[in-house]
User: Fold this.
Amino acid sequence: MLNNNKVFAFAATFLLFGLLLAGCGKSFLEVNEVGVESITISEELGNGVTLLKGTTLDAGWKVTVLPENATDRAENFSSSNPDVASVNGMGVVTANTEGTADITISVGGKNVEFTVTVVNKIIVPATGIQFLSSELELKKGETLSLPGQITLTPADANDGLDYTSSDAAVAAVNEEGLLEGISLGTATITVASKQNPSVKATLTVQVMPFSGDYSRADWTMTASHELMIATNNPEGNSLSAAIDGDLATNFCLVRPGKTSGTTTKVSVPSGSAIYFIVDMKTAQDVNYFRIRHRNITQTFIRWYAFDEISGSNDGTNFEVIATDVVIPDAATASVEESVNIPLPKSNYRYLKFYAQKAQCFNQASYTSQGNTVQIQELYLGVTP
Assistant:
């Protein structure tokens, strides 16, 4: 009886196991693959993407797959131009260098792509432009950088600006926004966004007569004699020394009747004339000059007077402007810079400063102390 029960239990267990296997086999047979019918890219990518060089973009899982129960949803990525924009297996796009590349996303045999543009600078267009003031007075010959006079909205706008003048003969402006007063009158300056020219602002510029010291930035000088140079040139002697704005340099000429210099030794016969010529590069109204002496101790190296100051527009034919022009207080050591020394108003490109008489130099004698006459800085200007 006991053996029959064991046989029955074994048979029941075997039957149950068989039914389970049959059930499992049936469920496996019901699993079917569903193919991808279409994929669409997100609007974020579909309109194209601009990336700054060196940045990245995660393009993973940015497509919509239909039908929703498609079984193969694995994404694969490729780039048409990896040198410009590369993409890894996870869909991370890296911007490498300026240019464009198409990134392709493949899912279940279907493809979609978007364009990546790599730039060195992300353009932020201006939506507003405003001058700090709507009107400006500018002296003739004076310059002003306009970018420092402009406020942009947004503050980080960088699309660039175009500058124009209603009358460049009165006030001219270049592409960098450097404004210059050319002649007396009024002109309107317009600045506009390069991306959107309708975003703009205007400035009314009135050009007034210039007064004060002229800029010497482009000026040059020549001299009657070669320049003496001492060992290691402690004077900093050069033809530009008097117009370079550097107080460590000095323009030195050997006086008549003297010899000076070691590296370059120069002698000027007694009674000879010496002179220097300033080329202002353009004819300008001048009615004064000013001299800064080398120091407050050596009055014997100063200029005391000029026999003649003349002007020219061709550098060859000079006309006398003034004669016997005295440098006030040249003998007073503590006066390092002269006052503005008046001249009859003239309009020349070249001005020649000529000296021959002994009175133009220290102690009014060719044999007095001092081998050279020196100028640290020379200024020319005009007053109303």
